[in-house]
Amino acid sequence: MIAQVVVDVVHENVAKPFSYLVPPDMAVEAGMRVSVPLGRRQVDGVVVALTETCDVPAERLKPLTRTLDGYAAVLPQLLSLAEDLAVENHCPLSETLRLMLPAAMRTGRVQAKAEPMAQLREGVDAAAAAAAQMRAPKRATLLRMLSGGEAVPVAELAALVAAPQEALRKLEAAGLVRLFAREVFRLPYGDMVSEKTAAPEPTAEQRAALAVMLPALEAGKGAFLLHGVTGSGKTEVYLALARRALDMGKAAIILVPEIALTPQMVGWFRERFGPRTAVLHSRLTDGERCDEWRRIRLGDARVVVGARSAVFAPVERLGLIVVDEEHEQTYLSDRHPRYDARRVAMSRCAREGATLLLSSATPSILSFAMARRGDYTLVEMPTRVNGRPLPEVTVVDMRAELAAGNRSIFSQHLQQRLAACFARGQQAMLFLNRRGYNTFVSCRSCGYVVKCERCDVSMTLHQPGDETTASLHCHFCGAVQPPPKTCPACGSGYIRFFGAGTQKVEEEMRRLFPAVRTLRMDIDTTQKRDAHYHMLTAFREGKAQALIGTQMIAKGLDFPNVTLVGVVAADSTLNLPDFRAQERTFQLVTQVAGRAGRAGETGEVVVQTYQPEHPVIVAAAAQDYRAFFTQEFARRRAGLYPPFTLIARLLVESTQEAAAREMGNRLLTTLESYMAAHPVQKKRVLMLRADAAPVARIRGKYRYHVLLKLFEHPDAQPVVALLGELAQVSDPYCQIYAEVNPATLL
């Protein structure tokens, strides 16, 4: 038997399977990880096929060295998915196979966790042995504790008997006790409540939604878009579908867009399904991630909750994938290979006979358009649970505040509502999608703006304590430097700080409400492991009355005591150079507004903006998704933006500006030549140009892109395929990436 092995080395010289002989005494199947000789070294790889013959004579083939697991690490359906992703992304199969396995498992960095155990040896009379050990009371006590015959963790014995290790070793030497190590799995969020709870009685809307989706789940098919307003009980629908999948002997994957949401969702699913729930995301330790992956692969966990990469969880008999908050751009990978978890979920469901559920209070324009076209079955839940009203929204014109002399980042109305909220003992959330203290530093004399030396972006002032601890940060590469006291360009002392971030909001809160404890949740405050979990738990337990944050707090979170939400700057994302800017602004404002009034009290929302008349702000304040969809759909039709067209690009990165520009122009010339030779494809291309990317340099690499706008038509597919081929152009100075409808054009 001959094994076709893809080695875990990403290089064009080894981008194909290699043939190895399978030793007669070695059990091997497709998907297994193996160690093989490659040149003069040993490398790991994955068996992608078993054959009886190959193009190389058998006497020239080297044998497999060993298998690394006792089972296929990559399931057949995931092996097929990896192959298709490699073709789609024009990358080696070894790259997409890496998506299927924890990185620490591939590199061997993680050792299995072992728990010391003690057990009475078979045939030993515990009572008689204890009586014989009366001159050693600790040993006698341990023998009595082990009299049941079951293996007991040494840690449990140590809780009742101080330092039992030496006494246990003597009992082992006497042949009375067996000491050994048992492998145990590390459990993320182990302190979370995991007792099972009963499902509440579903609402009429939940019953109606399930009546549509359950038959499809039972038939192993169907793709749905669940459009439910914030607080309508969408999570209970997920739980009911997962319950039915488990009852059928199938598994479920629940995807969430933010790591901050993962602990909350894990808690809900553990309360319902206990230890059969596993969690996968990038903030787990290497050991936790490997252990959770193994629990899933071995079938101990049948419900998987996680972020984007959890779509590759190795579950067998998949029955359901839920994509919560499906509109979020975090489902698009920004690293090569650049996959869209929503498309991968759709592909897995189609391959494995499972049901796909996309869900959001603010679906993406593309998904809602696909539902209207019939690609998804649209299911709607237009009211909140138990008839609770949506929060009352007040839009404050910050131009009028400024004219009235209020230079605070809080309007008078927001200050009044915060005071009333805190006086009632209730909680508030304040949203601003900019972190730091001030957003940029400029010279009032010459206009100079302090920019990062490695990135073409302005630096943000961070001031964690007082002015003496202030520093400038680049939010792209992480560079830090002290703020200038004089202008580096003209020497003037008129250096000023502009804009507001979450740190400044926090400072203003403390100035206005010194007795109110606040928590700030952004990338800066959530660097430590489990920081999201501990911060949200503290807020839920009432240890703080105000939660200030970026988009981390804007969706999915459920705090019964939050009755007020303040959107500090609703239009901060409205005018970004991206055709999706209006969509994202509507989604952010609507989602964060939905955090208010989710329990008994009516919620209220204060939206501060300098453009109160803007249609997006008006629709978000009314929480009217259909009105927004109608106007945005018409705008995109008029401007020929997705979903009416495809936006694609070739992104070139290089440490040399001239090399990036030259490669971009070469790629443009190649595409123009192709268009001239293929008039059928050319007529589907609306725009083709090369230019520096809007952010022209990141982390010391210059960026140049070739942009295309194409009609969504089969004739355009050869052009998209050509982009993938051009991304494989080998150049010692440049890296090239092909992107279709990228998450950002910056």
Briefly, what is this?
The chain has 746 residues and is of the alpha/beta class.
Task: Kindly state the percentage of residues in helix.
Answer: 25-40%
Alpha-beta content class:
alpha/beta
Largest sheet entry: 7 strands, parallel
Globular, elongated, flat, extended or rod-shaped: what is the shape?
Answer: globular
Poorly predicted segments: none
Q: Total number of helical segments? A: 23
What proportion of the residues form beta strands (DSSP E)? 15-25%
End-to-end gap? 51 Å
Our Rg estimate from Cα atoms comes to: 30 Å
Strand order of the largest sheet: 11-12-10-13-14-9-15
Total count of strands: 30
Mean pLDDT: 93
What labels describe this entry?
alpha/beta, seven-stranded parallel sheet, 23 helices, 33% helix
Structure description:
- This protein is 33% helix and 23% strand.
- The chain contains 23 helices and 30 strands.
- The strands form 7 sheets. Strands 11-12-10-13-14-9-15 form a 7-stranded parallel beta sheet, with helices on both faces. The protein has a 6-stranded parallel beta sheet with strand order 16-26-25-17-24-23, sandwiched between helices.
- The two termini are 51 Å apart.
